[in-house]
Amino acid sequence: MRPPLFVELCAGTAALSLRLAHPRARPPVSRMGAKTGYADVILRCMGLRPGQGAGHYLFCEPDDGVRLLLHAYRDRELATKAAAIIASWKDEEPRALWERLRADGPATCPPVDPREVARWVLGGVWSYRQGEIDSGFIGPGQRRQDTTATATATATARIALGLPATLTDDAREVDPPQLPPGVVAYIDPPYVGTTGYGKGFQLPRAEWLPVVRRWKDAGALVVVSEAEPIPELIADGWHTVRIDGERRGQKRTFSKQQAEWLTMSGPPRWRPSVQGSLFGSVDAADRTQ
């Protein structure tokens, strides 16, 4: 049975919700720390599968630009119009286009405007693929026509899923009622020792721990991503799973943070196999139940 509600308390590009909604869906833009490569394994540990869907989705996301993207997930017309706008930019010289779009300033939401969605998505693609806009050519005399804009337009059109979703900007302000069975709440908070969200929004562990406990008390299965097991939750009887060996796609070669752990309020429905040493020992943390 599909969950009646699937919650992403620090949604970002909501890679898990997209994958839950459609087995091949992925965000059109990447961000540092996004869970696109881990979406399938996290869903499997939750007892869910790609394409299973949910009755409703709740996205909590403080960043205005990312919220524009999340609105496009639930509004087919918005996503389609944004994709068409991106496609219309394909013949513009990349550096000039970048400067023109950047001159409009930071993304704003509300209002939710197709051009603003298009501007944020294409700018996000360029920001992640550093240096691509510095050249408008891929070879002597060969103009790079499609490369970024056309591909991004195609990816944006694919997220026109019409998800039944509610958006809010701050997970700390949501007080869930008593929930029906099957609700799942996932949080991917700023990892300890990392730069966090920026733009003045901080969510340290001391502030999101009450949030996840509140959702657990309301009846949800709660799952937390971090670079380590969460000791405060383990002390409450929560469960841990290490998943960094299950990442799909490009590996994290640019980051010192390589470990990926889930801390779950209930037992995982699936657990990756753990390879012991030559002497048959397994790290104690991997045995945490």
What are the defining features of this structure?
two-stranded antiparallel sheet; 2 domains; Rossmann fold; disordered C terminus; 9 helices; 7-stranded mixed β-sheet; 9 strands; 289 residues; elongated; alpha/beta
Protein model, in words:
This protein has nine helices and nine strands. The protein has 289 residues and is of the alpha/beta class. The chain folds into two domains: 6-74 and 162-287, Rossmann fold (3-Layer(aba) Sandwich); 78-158, no CATH class. The protein starts with 5 loop residues before the first strand and ends in a 25-residue tail after the last strand.
CATH topology title of the largest domain: Rossmann fold
For the largest sheet, list the strands in their spatial order: 5-2-1-6-7-9-8
Number of domains: 2
- Tell me the name of the CATH homologous superfamily of the largest domain: Vaccinia Virus protein VP39
CATH hierarchy class name of the largest domain = Alpha Beta
Query: Which stretches are poorly predicted, pLDDT < 50 over at least 5 residues?
Result: 130-146, 276-289
What is the 3D form? elongated
- The helix/strand order is EHHEHHHHEEHEEHEHEE
